Automatic annotation (TrEMBL), chain A:
Lineage: Eukaryota, Metazoa, Ecdysozoa, Arthropoda, Hexapoda
GO molecular function, one term: ATP binding
Entry function: Accepts ubiquitin from the E1 complex and catalyzes its covalent attachment to other proteins. In vitro catalyzes 'Lys-48'-linked polyubiquitination. Involved in endoplasmic reticulum-associated degradation (ERAD). Required for sterol-induced ubiquitination of 3-hydroxy-3-methylglutaryl coenzyme A reductase and its subsequent proteasomal degradation.
Keyword match Metal-binding: no
Pfam short name (any one): UQ_con
Listed SMART domains: UBCc (SM00212)
Protein EC: 2.3.2.23
GO biological process: ERAD pathway
Keyword Cell membrane included in the entry's annotation: no
Protein name: Ubiquitin-conjugating enzyme E2 G2
Catalytic residues in the record: C99 (glycyl thioester intermediate)
UniProtKB/TrEMBL annotation, chain B:
Protein name per Swiss-Prot or TrEMBL: RING-type E3 ubiquitin transferase
Biased composition (Basic and acidic residues): 541-552
Catalytic activity reported: S-ubiquitinyl-[E2 ubiquitin-conjugating enzyme]-L-cysteine + [acceptor protein]-L-lysine = [E2 ubiquitin-conjugating enzyme]-L-cysteine + N(6)-ubiquitinyl-[acceptor protein]-L-lysine
Enzyme Commission identifier(s): 2.3.2.27
Compartments, record wording: Endoplasmic reticulum membrane
C-alpha cells in the first residue's frame, strides 16, 4: 500500500498531489460537522462528503451526503458539488447540484449576480467549499434561485419551508416522517 | 436487457420466416426463391432484416466499445448520451434539406457516422481522463493508439468516398457526410496531440510546465481549422442548397471556443511575460517570513517562486498555469495585467491632462487614498503639469532620463533667475521641471516602471531632481524676499508670494508621496506605510513650514533610497 502511494505520488500531476494533501489535512483536523474523502482510493477526483445541518436552523440534525467531482486541472478550476440526497433549498438545483459563487470560475456567472471577489480561486479548498455550503444551508441566498420554488417559499412561507426541511432531515436519518 | 429481448424476438421471427419457407419447399434453393418472390413474407422479412441490421450494428458497436474502452465511467456515458442527442437532432435537421436523397443507404451511412462520432467522443473523454488517473497501463496505450489510428483511417476513407461520389454524381447529401468526417478528422488530430502531450508528461518525473502552453496552442490551431471548415461548408451549402441551419449550433460553439482560445493565449502570454520580467524572485528571507507554502499546490516553496506586486508569493510554475486561466493574484485578485497595460496605453490619454492647470493641493492627498499603487497615470500627470503649463524652457530638456539638464539648477546657478524685476508682481518661482516625459520613448518610460535595479535608480535620480527643484524654489524664494526687503515693497504684496510658495511646495510634496507610494508598491512594500504620513500645514509660519517640509522630504527620500538599495 505504501509503495503504491509512493508510486502515485511520483506519477501524479499536481492536481492529484494537492487533493491528497487536502485529504490528509481533512482527516487530520476535520472541521466540525463535515466529513469528506475520496469514494475510493483509486480515484482521487471523486469525493464523497457528509454535511451535518447547521445547528439552530431548520436543517439541524440532518446528515446530508454529497459528492464532489474534481476537474483534472484542480485547483485551477473549481470542483462540482452535488447532493446525493433529496434537498429543498433556494441554492440547490432539483437534481442536487449546488449553486454557490465559490464553485464558479470567474467569467461564468449562471445567475448574473455574483461579484468576482467571491468566485473560485486556487486559494479555496474542499474545506472552505464545505464550510460555505454549511453557511449556505443556514442562510440561503434567495436572489440566486437555483430552485425557484424553494426561494419563493423561503421568502413568503417560512413555516412551510421549515416543515419541508425537517421532513428531509428525517428522511436522511432514516426516520419515518 | 431490453436489447437482448429485441435481439431474441427478431432472431425468432427471422427463424420463423425462414423455417416457414423451408417447411413449405423442403429444399434450400426453392425456399430462397420463395422468400424473395412471395410479397408478404418479403415485406415482413425485410423489416425484420432492418431490425436485425440495426441490432447487428449495435452489437458490433458494443463489442468494439468493450475492446477499446472496457467499462465506461458514469461521466463518459452521460456525455455520450448528451452529445448523441444533439447529433441526432442536427442530422435530422440536415435531412430536411436532403429529403430527396432519403434511402436505406442513407440511413446506414448516418448510423455509421453516429457510431464513429460516439467513438470520437469516448476517445476524447478517455484521453482527458489520462490526466486524472494515477496509473496508466500499457493496455490503455494500446487501446488508445489503435483506436486513434483506426478512427483516422476511417475518417480519411469516408472523406475520400464522399469526395469521389460528389465528383461523380454532383452535390448530394455526401457533401454533409464529407464535411462531418472532415470535422471528425480535426477532432482525431486534437485527441492525438493531447494524447502525445499527456504521454510525454507521464513519462517525465517532474510535472511538465510547458504542457498547458502546448495544449492552448493546439486548441487555437484546431479551432482555427474548424472555423475555416465550418465557414467553407456554410458558404458551399448556401450556394448550392439553402442555409444549413443544422450547422449553426456547432459553428457558433466552435467560433466561441476559438475566440476564447485566442483571448486566453494573448492574455496569458502577457501575464507570463509580466511575471518573468517584472516580478522579483522571492528571496529566502521572504519565504521564511511567509509560511512558505504555495497556496496553489499546497507544497513547500524551496525554489523558483515569484512575488507579485501585492506581496503574495507562489511557485513560478503554479503561477504560470494559473495565469493561463486568470490574470489575477489568486489570493487577493489584484489584476496583474493592469499596470503594464496602463503604462503604454494610458500615456496618450494623459497628455491632455498634462496640459491642464496644475492640480490643486487638495487633490493630491486624495489621490493618495486610492491605495493599491499603480498611480502612474495620475502621478505622471501631476508631475508633468507644472512644466507643461508654465514652463516654456521645458523644451531644452533632453529626452534622456539618465542625462538631466540640471546645470542651471545647481545652487550657484539659481540666483541668475532670481531678481530679474524685483519690484514687479511676485510671480510664483518657476524652476526647471524634470525631463519632459512626452518626449520619452516607450522603452524609456517602461524602463522607469520596472523593479530592476536600473529602473529604481532612475526613479531615485528623478526624485533627487525633484528635491533639487524644491531647493531651488526655496532659494529663489529667499532671493525674492531679500529683494523685496531691500526694495521696501509693502507687506501685502509679499503675502501672496509666500502663500504661493507654500502652495507650490505643497503640490510637490504630495507628488513625492505619490511617487514614493508607487515605488513602494511596485517594489513590493506595503502601501499602508505611507498613508499615515503627516501632511504639511499651511497655517504655520513660512520658515517653519519650509524646514518641516525639508525634513519630511529628506526622510522620505532616505526611506525611498533605502528601499531601492534593499531591492
Amino acid at each position: 500500500m505504501i509503495t503504491d502511494n509512493l508510486y502515485v505520488n511520483i506519477m501524479a500531476g499536481s492536481a492529484l498531489r494537492r487533493l491528497m494533501a487536502e485529504y490528509k489535512q481533512l482527516t487530520l483536523n476535520p472541521p466540525e460537522g463535515i466529513i469528506a474523502g475520496p469514494i475510493n482510493e483509486e480515484n482521487f477526483f471523486e469525493w464523497e462528503a457528509l454535511i451535518t445541518g447547521p445547528e439552530g436552523t431548520c436543517f439541524e440534525g440532518g446528515v446530508f451526503p454529497a459528492k464532489l467531482i474534481f476537474p483534472p486541472d484542480y485547483p485551477l478550476s473549481p470542483p462540482k458539488m452535488q447532493f446525493t440526497c433529496e434537498m429543498f433549498h433556494p441554492n440547490i438545483y432539483a437534481d442536487g447540484r449546488v449553486c454557490i459563487s465559490i464553485l464558479h470560475a470567474p467569467g461564468d456567472d449562471p445567475m448574473g449576480y455574483e461579484s468576482s471577489a467571491e468566485r473560485w480561486s486556487p486559494v479555496q479548498s474542499v474545506e472552505k467549499i464545505l464550510l460555505s455550503v454549511v453557511s449556505m444551508l443556514a442562510e440561503p441566498n434567495d436572489e440566486s434561485g437555483a430552485n425557484v420554488d424553494a426561494a419563493k417559499m423561503w421568502r413568503e412561507d417560512r413555516p412551510e419551508f421549515e416543515r419541508i426541511a425537517q421532513k428531509l432531515v428525517r428522511k436522511t436519518l432514516g426516520i419515518p416522517c | 436487457m431490453r436489447a437482448a429481448g429485441i435481439t431474441l424476438i427478431s432472431i425468432a421471427l427471422t427463424c420463423a420466416v425462414i423455417g416457414n419457407a423451408y417447411y413449405q419447399k423442403k429444399q434450400f434453393y426453392p425456399s430462397v426463391v420463395y422468400i424473395t418472390k412471395s410479397n408478404p413474407s418479403m415485406a415482413f422479412f425485410f423489416q425484420v432484416i432492418y431490425i436485425q441490421g440495426l441490432i447487428l450494428v449495435f452489437m458490433i458497436n458494443t463489442f468494439l466499445r468493450k475492446i477499446f474502452f472496457g467499462n465506461l465511467r458514469a461521466a463518459e456515458l452521460e456525455h455520450l448520451v448528451e452529445k448523441a442527442w444533439y447529433a441526432v437532432t442536427e442530422t435530422c435537421l440536415a435531412f430536411t434539406v436532403f429529403r430527396d436523397d432519403f434511402s436505406p443507404k442513407f440511413i446506414a451511412l448516418f448510423t455509421l457516422l453516429l457510431f464513429l462520432k460516439s467513438f470520437h467522443w469516448l476517445a476524447e473523454d478517455r484521453v482527458d481522463y489520462m490526466e486524472r488517473s494515477p496509473v496508466i497501463t500499457w493496455l490503455f496505450h494500446l487501446r488508445v493508439g489503435s483506436l486513434l489510428s483506426l478512427l483516422f483511417g476511417a475518417n480519411l476513407t469516408m472523406i475520400q468516398y464522399a469526395y469521389d461520389s460528389t465528383l461523380a454524381k454532383g452535390a448530394s447529401v455526401q457533401l454533409v457526410f464529407g464535411f462531418e468526417y472532415a470535422i471528425l478528422l480535426t477532432v482525431v488530430l486534437n485527441i492525438t496531440i493531447k494524447y502525445v502531450l499527456h504521454t510525454i508528461d507521464l513519462q517525465s518525473e517532474n510535472p511538465w510546465d510547458n504542457k498547458p502552453v502546448f495544449l492552448l496552442y493546439t486548441e487555437l490551431i484546431i479551432g482555427l481549422l474548424k472555423v475555416i471548415l465550418y465557414v467553407t461548408f456554410v458558404m458551399i451549402m448556401v450556394r448550392i442548397y439553402t442555409l444549413p441551419l443544422f450547422a449553426f449550433r456547432p459553428m457558433y460553439y466552435t467560433m466561441r471556443n476559438f475566440k476564447k482560445a485566442f483571448h486566453d493565449i494573448v492574455m496569458s502570454r502577457r501575464a507570463i511575460r509580466n511575471m518573468n520580467t517584472l516580478y522579483p524572485d522571492a528571496t529566502p528571507e521572504e519565504l521564511a517570513a511567509a509560511d512558505n507554502v504555495c497556496i496553489i499546490c499546497r507544497e513547500e516553496m524551496v525554489s523558483a517562486s515569484k512575488k507579485l506586486p501585492c506581496n503574495h508569493i507562489f511557485h513560478t510554475a503554479c503561477l504560470r498555469s494559473w495565469f493561463q486561466r486568470q490574470q489575477t493574484c489568486p489570493t487577493c485578485r489584484l489584476n496583474i495585467l493592469r499596470p503594464t497595460t496602463n503604462t503604454p496605453g494610458t500615456r496618450p490619454q494623459n497628455q491632455p491632462e498634462a496640459g491642464q492647470p496644475a492640480p490643486q493641493p487638495a487633490q493630491a492627498p486624495g489621490a493618495n487614498q486610492h491605495g493599491q499603487g499603480f498611480q502612474i497615470p495620475s502621478f505622471w500627470a501631476n508631475w508633468q503639469a507644472p512644466g507643461a503649463a508654465q514652463q516654456p524652457q521645458g523644451q531644452n530638456n533632453a529626452p534622456n532620463v539618465p542625462l538631466p539638464p540640471f546645470q542651471p539648477l545647481t545652487p550657484g546657478g539659481v540666483p541668475l533667475f532670481a531678481p530679474p524685476f524685483p519690484p514687479m508682481v511676485p510671480l510664483p518661482p518657476v524652476p526647471t521641471p524634470p525631463p519632459n516625459l512626452t518626449t520619452l520613448s516607450e522603452e524609456e518610460l517602461r524602463a522607469m516602471e520596472g523593479n530592476m535595479r536600473q529602473a529604481v535608480e532612475a526613479r531615485i535620480e528623478t526624485l533627487q531632481r525633484v528635491q533639487l527643484l524644491l531647493d531651488a524654489a526655496n532659494a529663489m524664494m529667499n532671493q525674492y524676499q531679500t529683494a523685496a526687503a531691500t526694495a521696501n515693497i509693502p507687506v501685502p504684496t509679499s503675502i501672496p508670494t509666500t502663500t504661493s510658495t507654500a502652495e507650490t511646495s505643497q503640490t510637490k510634496v504630495p507628488d513625492l508621496s505619490v511617487i514614493k507610494e508607487t515605488a513602494s508598491t511596485s517594489a513590493g512594500e506595503s502601501p499602508a506605510s505611507s498613508s499615515n504620513e503627516p501632511t504639511p500645514s499651511t497655517s504655520r509660519a513660512d520658515n517653519e513650514t519650509r524646514d518641516e517640509q525639508e525634513m519630511l522630504r529628506r526622510r522620505r527620500l532616505q526611506k525611498f533610497s533605502s528601499q531601492g538599495t534593499a531591492e
